[in-house]
Amino acid sequence: MASQMIKGAFYSVGKKALDWVAITQCTLVGNRLRNYGLRYEDLYDQTDSLDVQEALNRLPPEVVDARNQRIKRAMDLSMKHDYLPKELQVIAERKEREALGATPLNQRSLP
Questions:
Q1: Is the pTM of this model over 0.85?
Q2: With b meaning 16 or more CB within 10 Å and e meaning fewer, what string describes 67-91?
């Protein structure tokens, strides 16, 4: 009985630590991607996975074009050893979401 309680306590502490590491990793990667104007989804390579290729085929052409443009801009900035200006990092994402007809993040609700 006591050993099960100890195992449960270690599992709980381990899970919390793992959750913290995952959140920290997502934050760090997100910040690095934002410097180049990328999103996490842009990292998926369509030549590696048939699932990613099929998902891109199902998207509207405007979304795929915006993704390709973000990737090209990020490669250009990387070659120049430069980052996207801070004011453009936030504005670019908002404009893109508005152009695609998405609702603002703070106005979304669950169906």
A1: no
A2: beebeeebeebeeeeebbeeeebee
